[in-house]
Structure formats: structure tokens, C-alpha cells
Design goal:
symport, Kup, about 60% helix, K_trans_N, alpha/beta, symporter activity, potassium, about 625 residues
Length: about 625
């Protein structure tokens, strides 16, 4: 590798520290403290401290390092990652029945992600600000208002984009991880014997000694790996090598040192369990550390919010969520987007969570079900990809799946016990999102099938119109069609009621591929159906902006000259009426109608000038 490539890799690795590792990087604020919380009834004893440290260390090694960085990140869709990407890859070379099962698994995983992100910003920011209890106990009453205030500011600035702020993220997070390491080293020097916890015998001995109680505490151990999905989801922004380099060179050593430093402090002073992270620092450094921890928590929250925006755009493009307003906040980076509906819905959820739970320990007690649920589903999907896409030996795939699930299932089972202490919240939110995605996809398919079930042959109609043409008017008529080889309803309505035809008719279909980007060479395909009829199919990846100006430009390059001011876009808008159906399908139909009414206006979605749109409506029974 030459100097230029090394420099580029180093710069990209530094960038990943600020974006990818924010969530997992703030876990030391609360993880070890929660292991000793009253929820699990463990006292600060040497064997317990060594057991917890050993479990945390091997969770970071086995789950983050081996599972995600070595295996899961191998599955990419032209460099892109994430649970929906993994779902698409897993379903490519299977039977329709298996594909439908894998789609369900992927959508449940996406729902879990949405449920998790309501808690993540709240627990990160509150854990940081709770350092006030150590620096100035009299300010404890201001923790909740300060948390809400900081997060309100964070959600307010989303509409301005993160580009101007993100350049500061990486340096701050680099300082954060170096601070974690230095604090950890200072603690380890107090009691170097704590390093023995690296040996897995301490974790094994812990399970043998405490048995059922040791199983329950896995619900707190998982807090050390929260944010692990970001490693895979953000792969498209940075690539595999920078993410792996940043983890093994900076993030992992800093986390391990800090956890072990906290453990050494507890061995010396068990009373430090009140907040071992902040008590690890000298008294003079408490205020600077509090400020730095708050900044790191805000950055971690920003990374989660950006992840929700990216996942939502991907779900919209793949047809699992209704179209909604997506604002691109950067002219250079397509990944920097802002979705108002998602932003403020998430904000309301986060504020309600903070008001209801009041303390980060209460939030931590509710945290983990969605995270570990996603981990289980990721294991199943990655093994499906290995079996069908990579053609691995079935025995090897079975062993790999077993090695993943033997860790994931106990973690998920232990966290399931948190259901009544708040774990119901992320599960309920995840279930709601899953129902919305399934409803939109299935009911939309039902609606389109109903609309086109009696559709006549497109070729026969064009041939008939060319022979016996109605009155022709100047200009180009563009009819948006969801499916090729069918007659657009707007075309039928215009012909039936206005009894005219434009000089040139273009039947335009926009398709979203299950890849992030489509090369411009493949952007449009043009087919001349007759002397005056043309079919244009435009292809876009799920991360791209669909724009008719761009389509017209590509058509011009291919020999079909189109001018926006000489074209009229005919769009059909359907009023949906429910047919008689069972009560559960009736409720699903009502939800679909509500989603359709609030979906983004189609011309806005494709950036069609409003003065070029002609809308024709009809009633459709579903």
C-alpha cells in the first residue's frame, strides 16, 4: 500500500470513529454500573468483578470483532450494509416461500431497530449528564430538564444537515476514546491484577458459581455491545477496512482499558459503584470529563438519528413504507438527509421516554431486547447468504449458525426478562413499525392487482389508436405507470373524458432496484411502441434521488428529446374503498388508507414541476 492509500485509509478510519462508534463508545458510562444494579442483586466482590469484566471482554471479542467485523460485514450490496440489505441478499437465490420468510425476518429486524433508537439517545445523554450527581449533588434535579434541552437542540438542527458539524465529530470522539484509555490505565495501575479477567476461566467460573443469577445478568452485559449494528449499517459510508482498522487500533483497546480500569477501582473502593466511570477521574477533571461525555453522548445520538433516516429512505425506496418527504442536506454527500416526519416522531418518543423513566438506570433496564433480537435475526440472515449466495458447505454454515446462536439466544432470553421493567416499549414500537411495513407492502400489491386485473392489452390499444386516432393536440403527454405492459389509468381516464391524444405519448415507469446505486449507463431504457407512443423505464438504486429532469436529460442523450415546458404529466389518484373482509383485514385496510392519505404527493416525490401536472381520479375497491 502506497503512502497516499495509507493516508486515505487513516483519514477514513478517523471518520468512522466519529460516526460509527458513537453508541458503543459511550457504553462505559453505564454498563459496569448496571451490572451491579439492584435489579441483579450482586455485591461488589472480587470474583463478581472479575466475572463481569471477563464477560464484557469476550462479548466485545466474539460479538463485535468476530461476528460482525469478520463475518457479517462480508455481506454487502455493492458496498452497502444494514438489516434490509442483508434481507435482500438472503432472498435472491431461494424459493418464493423461503424468500417471504426471510423478508419477514428482515422486516422484524428493521422494526427492532426503530424500537431501539427511541431509547439510545435518551440513555446516552442522561448517563453523561448524571455526572452532575458526582460533581455537584445539588444539581441532580436538573438532569432531566438538561437532557431534554440538549436533545431538543439536537433534533432542531437536523434540518440544517450534519455536514458542517460532522467535521468536529471525529476529533471529539478521538479525544473521547483516548480519555477512556487514559482513565482506564490510571485505574489499572491501582490494581494491575484486574488484567487477569481477560482469561475466559473467570466468565466460566462466574456461571458455575452463580448459575441462574449469572444468566439474568447477561441483560446488563449486552449494554457493552449496543450500537454494534451501526458497524454494518454504516459500511456503505466508509468501507470495511476503515471500520475494522478503527475498531482494532483505537476503539477496542480504549473500551477494554476503561472497563478494566473501572473494575480495578471497584476492587479498591466498592462504594464507587455509584458511578464508577466518573469516579475513575481525579476530582479536578470531573467538569471537563462531564462536558466531554455529554458531547460524546450527543454524537452517539446523532449517529443513531442519521441511521434512522437512512433506514427509512431504504424502506421507502424498497416499497415497505409510504413515500415521505426526504430532504438532502448536502450537495456532495447523498447520505446526508433529513426526514421531518421521522425526526419529530422520534423526538416526541425520546422526550416521553425521558419523562417516564427519569433515570438512565431505569432506561438501561428496558434496553437490550430489541438489540439482541436484531442480533439473532442477523445471524439467521447472514447464514442464509453464506449458504445460497456464497455456496458454502451446508455443514460449515450449520456450525457457523450454531456458534452465533449459542451466544445470541441466551442474550436475547436474558433481556426478554426485562419486558415488564420497560422492555415492552421497544418491542411495541418495533411491532408497530413491522405492521406498518407489512401493511403498506401487501395492501399496495393488492390495490395494484385489483386495478390492473381487467386491463386490456397495451399493444392492441396502441395499434387501434394509431389506426383510428382521436383528436391530436400539440405537446408530449407523460403517463406515470407503476407497471410496464399495462395501460395507465390516467391514460384511460383522459381518453374517455377528454377524447384527445397528444402528439407524442410517453409511458414512464420508475423502478427501484435492490442495489444502492444504478450506473448512469443503465439509467433509462427506451422503446418505441409505435409512431407516437414510447415506453421509458427509469432505474434507480434505493439510495438515489428519482428526478424527472434527470430522466428527460438521459432520454435526450438516447435520442428521445423531451422538454419539460412542452410536456404534461398525467397522474391518477385513487380514492380507496374497502370491500367486505374479515375484521383483522378490515383494520389493516383502514391503516393502509390512512397511510395512503398521508403519503407524499407523487409529483413531489419525483420532483415534477406542479404546473406540469394533471391529476385524474377514480375510486378503487380493495
Amino acid at each position: 500500500m502506497n503512502k497516499k492509500n495509507k493516508k486515505s485509509l487513516s483519514a477514513a478510519s478517523l471518520a468512522t470513529i466519529g460516526i460509527v462508534y458513537g453508541d458503543i463508545g459511550t457504553s462505559p458510562l453505564y454498563t459496569l454500573r448496571e451490572c451491579f444494579s439492584g435489579y441483579y442483586n450482586f455485591s461488589v466482590q472480587p470474583d463478581v468483578v472479575f466475572g463481569f469484566l471477563s464477560l464484557i471482554f469476550w462479548a466485545l471479542i466474539l460479538i463485535v470483532s468476530l461476528k460482525y467485523l469478520v463475518h457479517v460485514m462480508r455481506a454487502d450490496n455493492e458496498g452497502e450494509g444494514g438489516i434490509l440489505t442483508l434481507m435482500s441478499l438472503a432472498g435472491r437465490n431461494t424459493t418464493p416461500r423461503v424468500t417471504s420468510i426471510l423478508v419477514m425476518i428482515g422486516l422484524i429486524g428493521a422494526g427492532f431497530f426503530y424500537g431501539e433508537v427511541v431509547i439510545t439517545p435518551a440513555v446516552s445523554v442522561m448517563s453523561a449528564i448524571e455526572g452532575l450527581e458526582i460533581a455537584a449533588p445539588s444539581l441532580e434535579a436538573y438532569i432531566v430538564p438538561c437532557s431534554i434541552g440538549l436533545l431538543t437542540l439536537l433534533f432542531l438542527i437536523q434540518k440544517h444537515g450534519t455536514g458542517s458539524v460532522s467535521r468536529f465529530f471525529s476529533p471529539i470522539m478521538l479525544i473521547w476514546f483516548l480519555t477512556l484509555a487514559l482513565l482506564g490505565i490510571s485505574g489499572i495501575l491501582i490494581n494491575p491484577e484486574v488484567l487477569k479477567a481477560v482469561h475466559p476461566k473467570w466468565a466460566i467460573s462466574f456461571f458455575k458459581e452463580y448459575q441462574l443469577a449469572s444468566f439474568f445478568v447477561l441483560g446488563a452485559i449486552v449494554l457493552a455491545v449496543t450500537g454494534v449494528e451501526a458497524l454494518y449499517a454504516d459500511m456503505g459510508h466508509f468501507g470495511k477496512s476503515p471500520i475494522r482498522l478503527a475498531w482494532f487500533s483505537i476503539v477496542l483497546p480504549s473500551l477494554v482499558l476503561n472497563y478494566f480500569g473501572q473494575g480495578a477501582l471497584l476492587l479498591k473502593n466498592p462504594a464507587a459503584i455509584k458511578n464508577p466511570f466518573f469516579l475513575l477521574a481525579p476530582e479536578w477533571a470531573l467538569i471537563p470529563l462531564l462536558i466531554l461525555a455529554t458531547l460524546a453522548a450527543i454524537i452517539a445520538s446523532q449517529a443513531v438519528i442519521s441511521g434512522v433516516f437512512s433506514l427509512t429512505r431504504q424502506a421507502v425506496r424498497l416499497g415497505y413504507l409510504p413515500p415521505m418527504k426526504i430532504i438532502h442536506t448536502s450537495e456532495m454527500e447523498s447520505g446526508q438527509i433529513y426526514i421531518p416526519m421521522v425526526n419529530w416522531t422520534l423526538y416526541i418518543g425520546v422526550v416521553l421516554v425521558i419523562i417516564n423513566f427519569q433515570h438512565s438506570s431505569n432506561l438501561a433496564a428496558a434496553y437490550g431486547i430489541a438489540v439482541t433480537g436484531t442480533m439473532v435475526l442477523t445471524s439467521i440472515l447472514i447464514c442464509a447468504v453464506a449458504l445460497k449466495n456464497w455456496n458454502w458447505n451446508p455443514v460449515c454454515v450449520g456450525l457457523l449458525l450454531f456458534s452465533f446462536l449459542i451466544i445470541d439466544i441466551p442474550l436475547f432470553s436474558a433481556n426478554s426478562l426485562k419486558f415488564f421493567s420497560g422492555g415492552w416499549l421497544p418491542l411495541t414500537l418495533g411491532l408497530l413499525i413491522f405492521i406498518i411495513m407489512i401493511t403498506w407492502k401487501s395492501e399496495r400489491f393488492r390495490m395494484l392487482r385489483r386495478m390492473y386485473q381487467h386491463n386490456n392489452s397495451l399493444e392492441a390499444m396502441i395499434s387501434s389508436l394509431e389506426k383510428n386516432s382521436p383528436i391530436r393536440v400539440p405537446g408530449t403527454a407523460v403517463y406515470l405507470s407503476h407497471t410496464v405492459n399495462v395501460i395507465p389509468f390516467a391514460f384511460l381516464y383522459n381518453l374517455k373524458h377528454n377524447k384527445i391524444l397528444h402528439e407524442r405519448v410517453i409511458l414512464l415507469t420508475l423502478r427501484t432496484e435492490d442495489v444502492p446505486y444504478v450506473h448512469n449507463i443503465r439509467r433509462v431504457t427506451i422503446e418505441k411502441l409505435s409512431g407516437t407512443f414510447w415506453r421509458v423505464v427509469a432505474y434507480y438504486g434505493f439510495k438515489e434521488i428519482r428526478n424527472v429532469e434527470d430522466i428527460f436529460h438521459r432520454c435526450g442523450l438516447e435520442g428521445l428529446s423531451c422538454k419539460m415546458m412542452e410536456s404534461s404529466f398525467f397522474i391518477s389518484r385513487e380514492t380507496l374503498i374497502l370491500s367486505k373482509r374479515p375484521w383483522y383485514l378490515f383494520l389493516r385496510g383502514k391503516l393502509f388508507i390512512a397511510l395512503s392519505r398521508n403519503a407524499m404527493y407523487e409529483p413531489d416525490e419525483f420532483e415534477i414541476p406542479p404546473d406540469r401536472v394533471i391529476e385524474l381520479g377514480s375510486q378503487v375497491e380493495i
